[in-house]
């Protein structure tokens, strides 16, 4: 067997011990349909990407969502030719022409799991690229090689080699596409300077040690679907006012009263959903972790797994572009600042206030996307699902329980209110935006039916 990265025997032995256990690897030969393979190995990449996102400098929420999205897009294109009646996303996504991606050779056999393994590993390397540590690069390489050692069995070497080459060609083509979206290597320049903050009573000002706001031009990035930005912008927020009889003052007072009267449960909710970068794998990472959990519970095939990550990835990427456009169009002051100026100079929040404007809420927007995608994938449309969110265990949190995906999304949105860092209008409009984006992604793209 020829391994993709030519592992030495000692490393092979380490991998066989370190990654062994209950993972399922289907030993299917030639161009068997994608649905014949288990999606377990692909989920492992997302587990690893969560760890790498947490540990890699520059991966704030927008950058993290973008990286997850392109890995999802790559995984789908790696296996789409093995899904009956499936259509490539080339020609469907903004700026990705119909002839942009390589095609499999006619009348040649491929192992779609090997293709997906090679493509996903290569795109992860490219997404973290210049800031990827040697240790994390080694983890990606080891996971790719271990998966290959399991998936290779019973495949003729030409099929395996052809599959690896095709997977890497897919990753390279999609990486070239990603380089023109406005977010290429944005992890090297999170503050996108020079940027001059607007000045006014309603305008955001720094709330901590970070003087510059994060990603002020992110709203100008190319979305996968234009409608996800132009068709989802929130309405004008409440008019800013320091008048104690104004609606805006009342909205800030609502935050103030909530923080001062939080229950122990509400404080736990605020902290559970905080998803701070470099302490966790960000809000998008939380939602991708949830998708991985749902796919595991569903014993999902490689086909359903790849489609699921692509749906969520496209929606999450565009959610952050849409939300960041509204944040910097309105540049609204955070409750922390307003309350200290006009209500109580000693006010403190439950969790840290992020270094960017308030309106609307990024958490609410991205979880609205997750709610919509999960409802379509795992329910009959009513959103009912007995969910025990275990994704926070790795970061020292407990398990949260929900009876529906809407309940999950509402709690996530409310967590920002309990934490004292968002007005309720931020959360309400963020959820509306995210749900709209999820609906657009599910309905404007021709997705295959998968089992």
Question: Briefly, what is this?
Answer:
With 451 residues, the protein is an all-alpha fold. Helix content is 52%, strand content 2%.
Secondary structure: elements and pairs:
Elements: H1 9-18, H2 40-55, H3 61-79, H4 112-128, H5 134-151, H6 157-178, H7 227-230, H8 247-260, H9 264-272, H10 282-297, H11 302-330, H12 335-342, H13 362-378, E1 384-389, E2 400-404, H14 405-418, H15 424-444
Antiparallel strand pairs: 1-2
Helix pairs in contact: 1-5, 2-4, 2-5, 2-10, 3-4, 3-6, 3-10, 3-11, 4-5, 4-6, 8-12, 9-14, 10-11, 10-13, 11-13, 11-15, 13-14, 13-15, 14-15
Count structural domains: 2
**Percent helix range:** 40-55%
Q: Which stretches are poorly predicted, pLDDT < 50 over at least 5 residues?
A: 6-30
What general form does the structure show?
elongated
The number of strands is 2
Determine the structural class based on helices, strands and strand pairing: mainly alpha
Q: Let me know the average pLDDT.
A: 93
Range of strand content: under 5%
> Over the alpha carbons, how many angstroms does the gyration radius reach?
22 Å
CATH architecture tag of the largest domain:
Orthogonal Bundle
Describe this structure as you would to a colleague.
- It is a single chain.
- The protein has 451 residues and is mostly helical.
- It has 2 domains: 9-178, Vanadium-containing Chloroperoxidase, domain 2 (Orthogonal Bundle); 191-444, Vanadium-containing Chloroperoxidase, domain 2 (Orthogonal Bundle), CATH 1.10.606.20.
- Helix content is 52%, strand content 2%.
- The protein has helices at 9-18, 40-55, 61-79, 112-128, 134-151, 157-178, 227-230, 247-260, 264-272, 282-297, 302-330, 335-342, 362-378, 405-418, 424-444; strands at 384-389, 400-404.
- Strands 1-2 form a two-stranded antiparallel sheet.
- The longest helix is centred in the last third of the chain and has 29 residues, at 302-330.
- Mean pLDDT is 93; it is low at 6-30.
